[in-house]
Amino acid sequence: MKVYLSGEIHSNWREEIHNAVKSLNLPYTLLEPNCHHDSSDDVGVSILGEEENNYWKDHKAAKINNIRIRTAINESDIVIVFFGEKYRQWNTAFDAGYALAKGKVLIVIHPEEYTHALKEVDAMASAVCATTAQAIAILRYNITSEL
Q: How would you classify the pairing of strands 127-129 and 105-109?
């Protein structure tokens, strides 16, 4: 099975999931966006040419990054979205909506204080977690049926 990991790129939450999947020998392939901030932001102008206006720079980058993101979500069986504490992750909310529209299983991870702001996302999710450890336990249970 394939799992897409969407969310902020400023903490090690993806690494925690990667390490757990490997150490528990779970048969998941983990997919993710480009998590290198600079190359993600600069891909459009690097490939298609410079822009004087940041709007068009961001527009080019977003379109190219979305090729990878949409492809990965479309290929995934499960999508995990992580809303971290440092930044507002508008793209993560969009990924959650896109995944749901494509009929994907959605697991949401966020701190308790985001419950009200994310109530609609949470209402559509298969599971809502406060920690990556909880999401890992769900992935494990999905394969092994062990608690």
A: parallel
Q: Which residues contact 107 (CB under 8 A, 6 or more apart)?
A: 78, 79, 80, 81, 125, 126, 127, 128, 129, 135, 138
Contact 89, 58 (CB under 8 A): no
pTM of the model: 0.95
Nearest-10 Cα torsion for 67, 68, 74, 75: 140
Name the residue among 57, 23, 9 with its Cα closest to residue 139: 23
Q: Which two tokens stand for residue 118?
A: 């994310």
Q: Which ranges of 49-131 would DSSP assign to H, the alpha helix?
A: 54-75, 90-101, 119-124
CA distance 16 to 19: 5
Q: At what angle do helices 37-48 and 54-75 cross, to 10 degrees?
A: 110
Q: What's the residue count for the chain?
A: 147
Q: How is residue 25 annotated by DSSP?
A: T
For 90-136, the pLDDT digits (tens) are 899 999 999 999 999 999 999 999 999 999 999 999 999 999 999 99
Alpha-carbon distance 87 to 134, whole Å? 22
